[in-house]
Every structure is written in structure tokens, then in C-alpha cells.
Amino acid sequence: MMGHTHALSGAAAWLLVAPGLAALPMAGGIAGGLTPIVANVLSPAELIAGAIVCAGAAMLPDLDHPHATIAQTFGPATWMLSKAFNWASGGHRHATHSLLFAIAAGLGCHMLADHYPIGRDIVVILMIGLALRAVGIGIPGKTITSALVNIGLTAGTFVAFHSQGVGYLWLGLAVAIGSLAHVTGDCLTERGCPVLWPLKHRWVLPYRIGIKTGRAFEIKILGPVLSIVVIALFAARLMPESI
Ligand SMILES: [Zn+2]
């Protein structure tokens, strides 16, 4: 599945799920009394920030692919990170394309958000960068200019979030939802994913109906439909009185 399809699916998943989770009475009690995860998720700025972070998290599993365009998001920094992901996960579409990864990444980022502000900010910046790169904002390619422009755009977005008073108690949740959206998306492709990794079995659609990455269906139908869904969900969440 292509990068922008993943990113759009992550944003859509966040806009669909997050407001409902925030309304749950037990939202503050998940993970054994840790700081409330989604306490402020309903503020418009955090809904938007969450959608962008979740879109970036929906690219995270593909950091296991050092030759993919997102590995160049911040130039050598993300390329080296991608090399490490590739080595640690056993290659492309292995450990990072699983339920276990989504849960571990979510819990890990939740811990960072709760206790380590610098680590939290690094994760947020990485997610913004991946999201912008995936939807084609910034300069693609391998040059140092492209990395610098992407860093500048990401920094601007991060500062904008900060100026709007965005808190990140929901960071782990957004990373988990984004990673799950990625795994779900890749399960709809012809190659499938090892959802229950470390079990090796790949989950694929039956009768070879899986989507072929980058072909007409994804580009001409799925991408535009997802774009409309994301815009409609933003409208519905940010202007509820108009629906
Ligand atoms: Zn993937």
C-alpha cells in the first residue's frame, strides 16, 4: 500500500475512534492508573494534532524499508533509523507489521509522553515529519535540501501545535491506532502481513482479491475516497452543529 494511502487511513482512523474513546468513562484508567490517555482529546487543536500524529504513525511500520521514500524524511537521521528498524524487525513487512508492534509502540510512546518530555517531543516530531512526507508536503528525494525543507515544515507544525496548547497524553493511543491502521491496510494488499508475529503466517484476503500496491484502484479510487472521508470527518468533528 502506498504511503499516502496509509497516512490518510491513519488520519481517518483517529478522527473516527478518538472522540468516542475520549467519551468513555474509563478513558483515564487504562494501563493501570497511568496519566489519563485521552483527557483533552476533544479540543479542536488536539483533534487535528492527533490526526496528523496518527497519520505519521500509520507510516511507522514502513520505516523497516530503508529504500522507501519516508526513510528520507529527515535525511540521514531517518535513513539510519530505518536501517535499525529493518535490522531489528528482520526485514520489510515482518515484526513492525504486527499487532504486537502496534501495542508495544503505543505503550512505549505513552510512557514517553508520561515521563520523558524530550523523548515525547522527538516522537511527535518524527510522526509529523512522516505524515507530511507521506501526503507529499515538502520536497521528496534524497538531497540535503529536501531533508532541510522537511525539517523546517515539521518544526513549524510542531511550534503551531505548541502555541495552541496541545498536550500529548494521547500520544501512545495515536501511535497504536496509526500502526494498527497500517497493518490493516497492508492486510488488504496481495502480500498481507504477519499480524500475529512472531508467528510467521501472513494474513491475506482470500481468492487473491488483495489490492496491488500503486495500481489504478489504489490511485484512482481508494486514495480519493479516503481523502474525502478524512475531509468529511474533520468537518463532522470540528463543526458538529452543522451536521
Ligand atoms: Zn507496510
Question: What do you see in this structure?
Answer:
There is one protein chain. This protein is an all-alpha fold and 243 residues long. It has nine helices and no strands. The protein has one domain. The longest helix has 23 residues. The two termini are 32 Å apart. The relative contact order is 0.19. About 2% of the residues have low confidence. The structure holds zinc ion. Zinc ion binds next to helix 8.
Topology:
Layout: H1 3-23, H2 30-33, H3 44-57, H4 76-89, H5 99-115, H6 117-134, H7 144-163, H8 171-187, H9 216-238
Helix pairs in contact: 1-3, 1-8, 1-9, 3-6, 3-8, 5-6, 5-8, 6-7
Zinc ion (ZN) binds at residues 61-62, 93, 97, 182, 186.
